[in-house]
Amino acid sequence: xxISDRVMMSCRLGAVFLLLAVAACAPTAEQIARSNPYxxxxxxxxxxxELGEREVAVGTPRGFCLDPSSIQxxxxxxxxxxxxxxxxxxxxxxADFPASFSPAPLYGDAAEIRAPVAALLTVSIAPNxxxxxxxxxxxxxxxxxxxxxxxxxxxxxxxxxAGPVRVxxxxxxxxxxxxxxxxxxxxxxxxxxxxxxxAFTEENDRMVVLTISDYEPNYPGDFVLFxxxxxxxxxVRTTNAQLTN
Length: 245
Hints:
The protein is of the alpha+beta class. The two termini are 34 Å apart. It is globular and about 45 Å long. Helix content is 22%, strand content 31%. It has helices spanning 5-13, 29-35, 85-88, 139-147, 152-156, 222-241, and strands spanning 39-43, 46-51, 54-59, 64-66, 72-74, 77-84, 119-125, 166-173, 176-182, 192-203, 206-215. It has one domain (29-103, 116-244). This is DUF5642 domain-containing protein.
């Protein structure tokens, strides 16, 4: 079964691989939240979007912080990139991260808080649910079959210039489908390894797509990246559970 247009739209929202270079003149988190009606709360480790009268939150695993300059939020959906706290939010402290949000221990004071792996995390949220019209218990199975179809390769790509993606592995964990993809090296986004993980899930009736891409030449292995994407999924799930819609 082909992937629905809604899934394709959300994948493209999350496909852009952003370089984390924060300019001195970049707007502050407070300025961004105040200027965007789709953002109801924003801190270095948490952002809450309101999409279609539903709030959806993104929480961060320890060592990763939200890059406020990367946030895009409109009625068509929202996208945010998470990077190394030392680069995008050097004032954050360990107290800002719930202990369960990292698969790797972190030590030290605020100046030493670093991402456990050299990677970028991207979260994209659609203004609709995941495969609406299909019973809840069948959605991940339908999606898992769909991503193995030839036409899904182009949808999973991380950038508009990237080539088709080869699906190397899929697995379901909780209410999320994780897909290990591999792009051709010639069309891989600059600085990234060809392999990456995406996760498809749902929060508050809104589809959420999570992606982890590492920097070359330090690829830590498929399972290591999977663990960190799963930590992001847990952070997102727990943060949304704290909302009162």
